[in-house]
Structure formats: C-alpha cells, structure tokens
Fold this sequence. Notes:
Chain B: It is an enzyme of class 6 (ligase). Chain B: It comes from Octodon degus. Chain B: This is Glutamyl-tRNA(Gln) amidotransferase subunit C, mitochondrial. Chain B: Belongs to the GatC family. The complex is a heterodimer of chains A (453) and B (132). Chain A is an alpha+beta fold. Chain A is 41% helix and 18% strand. Chain A contains 15 helices and 16 strands. Chain A has a four-stranded antiparallel β-sheet. Chain A has a four-stranded mixed β-sheet with strand order 11-12-13-14, covered by helices on one side. Chain A has a three-stranded antiparallel β-sheet with strand order 5-4-15, with no helix packed on it. Chain A is elongated, with a radius of gyration of 31 Å. The N and C termini of chain A lie far apart (98 Å). Chain B has 132 residues and is mostly helical. Chain B has a domain at 22-66. Chain B has four helices and three strands. In chain B, a hairpin with a 2-residue loop joins strand 2 (106-107) and strand 3. In chain B, helix 1 packs antiparallel against helix 3. The two termini of chain B are 22 Å apart. Chain A binds chain B through residues 1, 7-11, 13, 32, 37, 39-42, 53-54, 94-98, 101-107, 224-225, 227, 231, 233, 236, 238, 240-244, 258-259, 261, and chain B through 35, 39-41, 75-88, 98-99, 107, 109-117, 119. Strand 9 (102-106) of chain A pairs antiparallel with strand 3 of chain B.
Amino acid sequence: MKAQTEVLNRRCVEAAVMTGLALNCHINKKSLFDRKHYFYSDLPAGYQITQQRLPIAANGSLTYGVFMGNKQSRMATKTVRIRQIQLEQDSGKSLHDDLRSQTLIDLNRAGVGLLEVVLEPDLCCGEEAAAVIKELQLILQALGTSQANMAEGQLRVDANISVHHPGEPLGVRTEVKNLNSIRFLAKAIDHEIQRQINELESGGEILNETRSFDCKLGCTVPMRDKEGKQDYRFMPEPNLPPLVLYDSASLPAGTESQQVINIDQIRDALPELPSATRERLVRRYGMLPEHSFTLLNEVGLLQFFQNVMKETRAEPKKVTSWVLNTLLGYLKHHNLAVSESPVTSSALAELLDLLDSKAISSAAAKQVFEELWKGEAKSAAQVVSEKQLELMQDREALEQLCQSTMEGHPQVVTDMKSGNPRAINKLIGLVRKATLNRADPAEIKDILERLSS
Amino acid sequence: MSARALWLAFRSGLGGRQAFSTKGSGRITVEVIEHLERLALVDFGSREAVARLEKAIAFADRLREVDTDGVEPMESVLEDRCLYLRSDNVAEGNCAEELLQNSRQVVEEYFVAPPGNISLPKLGEQESFQHS
C-alpha cells in the first residue's frame, strides 16, 4: 500500500464556488489550506485539513421566510449573514458502545471533502434556525451539491448558542451537536436558550462547553470527551499550494481546462434558486408568497402543481387552492408523501376541468376528490356519472323547482323579502335538496332573487 | 524534528517522568512543557531536552532580526506551484478487508478504539506512561 499525500477533488471546488455564489458570497480567488491538529480515534492522521486562514468564500447572506402569527398565515422575510464557506476533510464516524466501554470507528468517510458554512449569530430562536436550514437544504438540492438529508448525515448542523441582555455584548456560548433533524434542531436551540436563561437568572454561569441534544430527554446534556479549550496548533498545510480560481478576465491562456476553475462560467451555469422559483410562481400565477413557500417546502408538490397546470384549463388560483388545501390536507392527514398520493395530477386536472366548465358544483367536486382518493383507478368523469353528481343543465327545470319551493314555503318567502338573510339561505338549501345537490347554490340564489323581485 | 528524535532516544532511558526546574534562559516554564507534551504526545523527559528546545526557539527567533516592513508574507513555500485538481472519478478502493487487517481488534467492519481519549497522567505521578 503506497503512502499518498492529499489531492484536492475538482468537483469539491466547483461545489464550493456554486454554493458561495448561491449564498451571495465573495469568492476568494486565492484561498489557503491549513492543518488543524487534535487527537481522536476517528481522525487517523491526527490532523484535519481545513481552511482557517483564508477560506474559499466569505461575507454572504441567506434570505429566508418565517411564518408569522398564530395561524402561520403571514410570511416575513429575514436575512442571515454568512461569515464564510470553507473546504475541509471529514473525519471518520464514531459509534460509542458504552456497554462494552469501547468506540467503534468507521473510516469510510475519513478524508472525504466537506463544505462548512459558517453563519453569523443573527438568529434569535429555534424557529429561525429551522427556517434557515430548510432554505439551505432547498438551495443545496437545487444546486445539486448535496441532497442535504440530515437523517442520513448529508447535512450536519452544530448550533452555537448564547444569551445576553439587549445592548450588552454576546454571552458565553455553548456548542450543541448531535442534531439529526430540523425538528430537533429547533427544539434543542429553544431548550438551550431557556436553560442558559434559567442558569443565569439563578446566579449561575454558562460554561463554554460542547453539549449534545438528547432527543429522548428533550434537552441538551454536556458531551463527554471535550476537554475544554483546545489548542489546534494551526499551521499551513505543507502539501497543498494555494487554491487559485479565475474569472473570464483573468483566465490564463493555454492552460488545461481540467485544471482551471472559472468563477464566471460557474455563475452562468447556476440553476434557478428557490427564491427565484418562488418569485416566478408569485408573478406567473398570482399566488401569495406563503403559497410559494409551501409548494417548495413539500417534496414533489411543485412538480405536482406544475403537472396539473399543464393539463387543466382551470385558473391558477383554483389549482393553487386545490393543491395546497385539499390535496395537501389529505396527504398530511394520512401522513403520505406527494409521491404516494392516490390522486394523480392528471386525475386532479380532469376534476378541475369539470369544475371549471360548471359540469359539477364545488361541493360535488369535493365528493369526487374523496372518491378518487380511494385509488380505485376511476376517472373523475366516471365518479361523477356513477354518483350522479352532474349539475342540472336545464335552467328552466331549475327555475320551476325554485318556483315550486317558494310556493311551498310562503312564510320563508315573506321573511326573505323583508330582508332576512337566513331566509334565502334556507330556500337555497331546500332547492338544493330537491335537486339532489345537483344545482349550483349561486345559481339558485340568482333565480330566487329574480323570482321574488 | 529534534524534539521527536529526543523522544525516541530518551523513552527507553528514563523509567518515569521527573519534575525538573526550568533550565537555560528560563523562558520555558514547566506548564508550557506539559502543555506541549499533551498536544503533540512527545516526551521531554530530561533537562537536556528542554534546553535543546530552548536553543531551537532561540535559533528561530533570529528570524525577527530581518526587517520585513512592507514585505508580503509568504503563505506557502509552494506558492508558485499549481494546486493539482483531481477529476471526480473513483479510481481505487474496495479494500476494506485489507485495511481492517491493520487493526488488532475489529467488530464487523469497525475498528475498535477506547471509549474516549485517555488522559495523560498528571506531572509528578510516579507511574510511567504506558506506550502500546
């Protein structure tokens, strides 16, 4: 087995530049590599190569949305500053076996390239952190630089938390690790904030320590094995020269393209980012920003929505409402992903066409949806005809029904004429019953008002 | 480099760790020596070793005699070289079995390590530090 020095993977650099650009960072045309020394069983070399002096990107920002208010109905946009993005090596993975007093080490990922994104302490609570991470996940997925699945360790998040009185400098911070999901991240942060407040208010002090989130206990606990302040003895990495990036203006002539990274080229090839996608949806379909967030946050929902839009004549606002309220409501209730929906986008498109052409009422449409949800491979049209949900097309017959209903309930008619709003609703209800729910309430109201004038 | 050579030379010579007073110019305190030993896992087992360290530092300090006003610091002796970028292809691997044979003890496909870092004995303890 031959000894090797570290070699930098080109794709890692491209991914770092893409991510830096997507996060509005300044890309450092020259960045440097350093060694960070410490001893731990999952770090076979005794040091980690990182970029401590001069990272590949710095001074960026991430704009994200938080739902406001009790009903989570309004959206506010906030921004968190990005301090820097650096390339570094991953360590191996430790599995602690307390029972046998040993640690099992998996070295498969040791040495693999990592991107670390460092944020400024601009966030105030678990909810904001959760929103930031969610947005970061969407960005990384759009870029293709990571699937950012926290449960699978594709995205790891450590939170640094401190409290202070307004106007005073930042307090002593603790670092919280072992956060495996966005939900736990928010919980852990909020718990730690409260713990620190409680500690300080009862006269205690906060130690600059590393804590771990215990999801069973729902709280943070001190992590063993972190021996206070470490001296990492940073030194320049002797085996790696500075990383030099170019743009179209500075591109050296006659160099092998495989060895050269052009920032401008990468920028031009960036895919559409989530914020641009949301803006496009709001502009094109007139939906609220909140809706665009929901469409992107749910895996597969945007694609579903776009498929329905392609196949239906119905108005975007109708489609938005049905997808976000009806479909998503059913999915959440049954705890299903969009990909598992028994109602396909084609089926929904067909249903919305029937609604749009006034072949059925919206109440009937809801019934059809419920039937389609059973997944019995029937089309919307089939369900409508089986359950006889078609709207009466015969206007004259409807008028006659209204007439006869009014004659049958003279007292209600009198109430209606004297301006009692509940009276007309009662009449509408009666007519609807008489039509076996096959008439549009709005149309009935129209006729009744005309007949009684 | 000299510190490491001394570590190998003195490891067998001395049975344990001795307390020692500061030597030479007295600039390097006992606390600093202990700190360095923990960080780098070297063993400054004797006064001579500490003196050698002090001489090494004095030698390096002579760099300060150079006037570097207005001179760009050098970041790397490799600064004129191109950092080679490797293409993202898997060229080797699939040698887990071979690599696991490096370890005395394995569990399934994991290397076995102690539960955490084992602390060095404190300065002044009589028992010698066990090398594996």
